[in-house]
Every structure is written in C-alpha cells, then in structure tokens.
Specification:
single chain, about 400 residues, alpha/beta, Rossmann fold, 2 domains, 7-stranded parallel beta sheet, disordered C terminus
Length: about 400
C-alpha cells in the first residue's frame, strides 16, 4: 500500500514525500482511514511502529480541509513525558511544513519564560496543543485556555500516563473539552485499567491491536548472568573497539546512572547521562548530542525508554532487568527501527532471574544467555529469584508450615 491511497490533502503528501515516507506501517494502514472517517479509535501497538504518524497525518488532513478554518485550538494531544511531547511536536512540524498548521508543545520543567511563551501561543490560537497533563492544568487554571472549538483529543502512551498516576489530571482536562469530539487512544499495552478507562472517555470506538508486547523480529536479543561488580567491565568489553555509533544504556536508578557515567568516563568512553536532576535545557542538549551522533553512549533512567524518536541505535543495554516486563519491550523498541537491525542485551544479577522469566513469558520466547567474555570472571552459579518449587513436595504450600520438603534419599 502507498500513502497516496489514503487520499490525504496534496499539501500533506508534499510533507510525506519530503520526509521520505513511502509505505505506511500496519498501524498507519489500519488507523488513518478510520480516523479520517471520524470514528473514535483505540490503537494498541508497540513502540517504533509509527503510531505518531498514524494520528498526526489524518489530524492534519482534518484541520486543513475544514470549512471556515480559524486560529483556535482544534486538537489536543496528551503525552506522559516532555520528551514524547517534544517528539510529537517535531513530527507535526515536519508533516505540516507545506500546510501551515500551528502547534505548540506544553510541558513542565522549563523556566518562567517558557511558560509565558506557551501562554502566548495558547492565547493566540495554536491549532494543535501537545501537552503533558500537569503543565496543561497549570494553564487551564489560569483561565485563558479556550477549548470551545476543539474537535480532536488524542491520548498517546495512555498506559504510561495511567502508570504515572495521571488519570485524575486527564479526567479534569476532559471536563473542559466539548463532549462532541473525536477521541483517539494509543497505547503499547491494553491492561484492564486501560479498558475501564476507555469506557469513560470514548464513544463506540473501533479498535486496532498489532504486535502487542512483542519486540521487533529484527532485534537480536541476548542476556548475561553477572554479578553487580562485573557489570562495568562487561559494558567496556561490549563497547570498546566495536563499530557501535550509538549505544543506549538503561539503569535502574538516578544514582546508578550517575555512577555508571563516572565509571565509564574513567574508562575513556564517550558517554553522557540523562536523569531528573538535570535542568530541562541540559536534558534537551544531551539528547540532541546523542541524536546527532556527537555522543556515542547515553545512559539513562527509564524516563527515556518511551517517547524518544532516535533512529538506528546500534545497541541497547539493560544494565538492570526492568521491574516491569512491558518496559523491556519499550526499551528494546529503541533499536531496530524502520526495518533496521539492532541488538539488545540485558544483565541479570542473581536476584533478578524471576523478573527476567516474566519478560520471557510476556514475549513468548526464551532469550539466549551468553557466556561471559574472557577476563570478566565466572557468572553466578545459582540464581536467587522466586523459590524453586521443584524442591518441595507438591510444588506448593502445605498448611501454615509453608513448604513441605521432600526427604533426601540416603
């Protein structure tokens, strides 16, 4: 299928051609016609499948083809993080280059000057507002946000927004919107709380579900069993001297990210870190440098595991096993984008085996465990995760006394 078959406005097609898009992804192929038709939509698709363009293109088409177009807010896109909000706004700028649709990204963490810039754009009528919930509520509370002409509400990464506790904020925002609107919900996963949430805000939605919780097939996935004190040396072994222009490392905590950055800098590796202690401008600059290949290695907390649009990442390293199995899918989704190949490696210490088995269960396949490279030392000889029930008679609890042990043979 070609994008031309959607019969989008010719000026939008100019933007698509300029960016170099030719064939729509499955989520784009399924979503674009339904959005153009005016239906509410639930779309479940993993990171890296092109879901942002799946709603941005028909959204722009609807705005530029409307009669009596005015400079008012016509669409609201809610996103969980400032990084995703910026990414969405960047795609809007690219696709709308030839149509002149105005947009503004509204997110927290900036200065008072940033807030005033957002305020001016909102008051003068940016047609598309991309926002994080908390920041938008700050503007709404100031009394100048006019949603009376709004036609579209899009919730991107809805599962993440609910995980982050944004549901009350989202419902408050929705209370200010016209009841007659088109609502689109995009999510990487569709757990029960999302299902219940959709019933509150969507009207007879159509649904698309594609490749839920499955890493892209062209990602080479592997894992090492390691002790924590072996991890730095293993990272160096995996990276030093290799042709890896872009490496993204996820670590569990802000403190571990800082420690890892210092240790790898001592090893003369080209690395920078991103975490919540950095000012927004500093974070944007680090991401810009990484995206432009001015920095080889980025180490980060899970704050950037979703919503970062950086192509051709050579290697993803999970320095710790993600607590949430679904986060693994999103992290791995940073590589092997747009039909490219990629590699994702996870370090498993002797306390994380159970979490890793949950990942394997979720993706439906066992991830290959590699032997440690020479010079790293021996891997953990025994996993310590959930109790091994095979050692207990009946495999489960026995009354209040817990597990009944099988007697040893003499």
């Amino acid at each position: 299928m070609k994008f031309s078959e959607f019969k989008l406005d010719s000026r939008i097609m100019q933007g698509i051609d300029a960016i170099g898009y030719e064939n729509p992804t499955p989520v784009q192929e399924g979503a674009i016609p339904q959005i153009i038709s005016g239906s509410d939509l639930i779309a479940c698709a993993q990171t890296g499948t092109g879901k942002t363009a799946a709603y941005v293109l028909p959204l722009l088409h609807g705005i530029v083809t409307e009669k009596n177009r005015t400079d008012t807010i016509k669409a609201l896109v809610l996103a969980p993080t400032r990084e995703l909000a910026v990414q969405i706004d960047q795609q809007l700028e690219g696709f709308s280059y030839f149509v002149g649709v105005s947009s503004i990204a509204v997110y927290g963490g900036g200065s008072g000057v940033d807030f005033e810039v957002e305020k001016k754009a909102i008051k003068t009528g940016a047609e598309i507002l991309v926002a994080t919930p908390g920041r938008l509520i700050s503007h709404i509370n100031s009394g100048y946000v006019d949603f009376s002409h709004l036609r579209y509400l899009i919730l991107d990464e809805a599962d993440r927004m609910l995980d982050m506790g944004f549901q009350p904020d989202i419902m408050k925002i929705i209370s200010y919107l016209p009841k007659k609107r088109q609502t689109l919900l995009f999510s990487a996963t569709m757990p029960g709380d999302i299902r219940a949430f959709t019933k509150k805000i969507l009207h007879n939605p159509n649904e698309i579900s594609l490749a839920v919780s499955k890493p892209a097939e062209n990602v080479l996935q592997a894992a090492y069993r390691v002790y924590d004190n072996q991890k730095i040396a293993l990272v160096k072994k995996l990276i030093a001297g290799k042709d890896l222009p872009s490496v993204l490392i996820f670590s569990a905590t802000k403190s571990s990210v800082k420690d890892l950055e210092k240790e790898l800098q001592r090893q003369k590796l080209d690395i920078k870190a991103i975490h919540s202690d950095l000012e927004q401008d500093q974070r944007k600059e680090v991401l810009r440098q990484f995206k432009n290949r001015e920095v080889q290695i980025l180490v980060a907390t899970d704050i950037v595991s979703r919503g970062i649009d950086i192509d051709n990442i050579s290697l993803i390293i999970n320095y710790n096993v993600p607590q949430d199995a679904e986060d693994y899918v999103h992290r791995v989704g940073r590589t092997a984008r747009a039909d490219k190949t990629g590699m994702a490696i996870t370090f498993i210490n002797d306390r994380e085996t159970w979490n890793f088995t949950k990942i394997e269960k979720l993706i439906g396949s066992e991830i290959r465990k590699l032997p440690l490279p020479e010079g790293i030392g021996k891997a953990p000889s025994k996993d310590r995760g959930r109790p091994d029930k095979s050692r207990f008679k009946g495999g489960g609890p026995k009354g209040k006394g817990g597990f009944k042990r099988t007697p040893k043979r003499k």
